Amino acid sequence: MILACSLLTGDTTLIIPSLLFIGIFVGVMKKATMNEVLLTALIGFIIGSIIAFIVSLVTVYYTEGGLYAIAVIQYSVFYIVFYVIVGCIGSALGYHVREEIDNRG
Asked: pTM of the full predicted structure?
């Protein structure tokens, strides 16, 4: 829901750290190779971003109208790509954190 609100308002002050944390959590939880962790994060964040985009688009269409919905479509594409990249960076960081934890023990 945070992602849908961010797509509606264009405010990224809360969403970027949240997505980075979720990506780190995915990287720590997934016990696999780096490629599998990144693929899992990529698929997960793409699906989540598309669902959030649809929710925000429907909300805007019914509250503001069709013209505002077109504007949301135009600037949401950039944010969806940006959020997926941030999530994948977070999962890569989480993978390296898990590797360091495993190597210490």
From this structure: 0.79
